[in-house]
Amino acid sequence: MIGFCLLVALVCFGCLVPNEWLPSLPNDKLMHFLAFAGLTLMLWPLASGVAFAVSVVALLAGGWAIECLQTLVPGRGFSWRDLAANAAGIAAACILLLAWQTWADDAYRIFVQ
């Protein structure tokens, strides 16, 4: 839980400070993708089932809120591409987790039962 909260704080800080405070990034969209994929992966052990689904929707809403708040930060603005990269990171992590869960269930049935 502490790691998740720290990553949320880091993502919020990185997204809500003026551009001149940040180092030059090689690929902004990749950073959004990885940040939100990481947040989604960190949610997995904290919530399951419906709680995980609600948390993922809240994460996407949080990404949208950050984009809206960026309009208040000098040199920053709302970006649909950033929001799309956030959503793609969340979706990729969910697909990875679903594949992992499916494999783990199959492995359990094969080796334990």
TrEMBL record:
<protein>
    <submittedName>
        <fullName>VanZ like protein</fullName>
    </submittedName>
</protein>
<keyword id="KW-0472">Membrane</keyword>
<feature type="transmembrane region" description="Helical">
    <location>
        <begin position="30"/>
        <end position="62"/>
    </location>
</feature>
<dbReference type="Pfam" id="PF04892">
    <property type="entry name" value="VanZ"/>
</dbReference>
<feature type="domain" description="VanZ-like">
    <location>
        <begin position="29"/>
        <end position="98"/>
    </location>
</feature>
<keyword id="KW-1133">Transmembrane helix</keyword>
<keyword id="KW-0812">Transmembrane</keyword>
<dbReference type="InterPro" id="IPR006976">
    <property type="entry name" value="VanZ-like"/>
</dbReference>
<feature type="transmembrane region" description="Helical">
    <location>
        <begin position="83"/>
        <end position="103"/>
    </location>
</feature>
